[in-house]
Amino acid sequence: MFKVLKTVKKACPICEAERELQFGNRSERLKIRDEDITVESKVYFCPIGKHYFHDIDDEEEKFQKAYREYRNRKNLLQPKDIKQIREKYGFSQRAFTRFLGWGEITIQRYEAGALQDVAHNSLLFFIRDFNNFKQLFQIRKSQLSKRDINKIEKSLSELESKMYQVAFNFMFKAAIIEKPKLPIRNFALKIKPTIPTQYIKGIINYIPIEQKGELALAA
Ligand SMILES: [Zn+2]
Predict the structure, then answer these.
(1) 3-state class of 175 per DSSP?
(2) Which partner for 71 in 59, 76, 89, 174 could form a disulfide, CB atoms 3.0-4.6 Å apart?
(3) Taking the chain (219 residues) in consecutive chunks of 10 residues, what is each chunk's mean pLDDT?
(4) How far is the CA of 161 from the centre of ligand 1 (A)?
């Protein structure tokens, strides 16, 4: 169905002549891999030649819409998710694609909206998990330059700090704030095997001043 929004005088690329064209919305059914997807797009209609055509940008937008819908149906990552995974670990597009062993501009294309390969999607989904990523990093880091390795290792240690901090705050609140009778020193000793000393020191901010000494002893 075509819904006219306005009429414009413009060159029709099919007639190769200036025409009084109708511009509006039309739904169109597209075949994206194994799925039929209906999307609405902006389109011109030439009443003389009785044909439809798109501006390049509207054509692109039409496919982007269809791909987004396809990814939703198939539970695939969206381009913004892929970018987020890459940036979380501190990769440039080029280093990330090298690390994954893919073609040179693969990640660039995916982030720009190209529909990803399903096997590629599975790998990205797998390494979205920090611990999975760390395992793959040990195996694949030799593909990267020394400088990139340092950069990623720095990101990993920052991420780890944040994760410890979150876990620690949670445990701290549970053990100290909600059960204020529990001695701080016991608590700190108890979690010490699972959380490095430097993070135990981080909770000092939460502690009433008269108890800080006790915690410092435990740390
Ligand atoms: Zn025409």
Answers:
(1) helix
(2) 76
(3) 96 96 96 97 96 95 97 98 97 97 96 97 96 95 97 93 77 63 57 57 54 51
(4) 62
- What is this structure's pTM? 0.77
Which tokens go with 179?
A: 């059960």
Q: How far is the CA of 4 from the centre of ligand 1 (A)?
A: 16
Give residue 115's identity as a one-letter amino acid code. L
Beta strand segments in the chain, E: 2-12, 17-32, 35-46, 51-53
- List the chain domain ranges: 2-59, 79-144, 161-218
- 18: which residues sit within 8 A by CB, 6+ positions away? 9, 10, 11, 12
- CB of 32 closer than 8 Å to CB of 66: yes
Looking at the chain, how many residues does it have?
A: 219
At 161 the pLDDT is: 84
Rounded to the nearest angstrom, the distance between the alpha carbon of 17 and the centre of ligand 1 is 7
Q: Tell me, in angstroms, the distance from the centre of ligand 1 to residue 44's CA.
A: 10
Residue among 69, 67, 77 nearest 127 (CA): 77
Task: Give CA angle at 132 (116, 102), nearest 5°.
Answer: 35
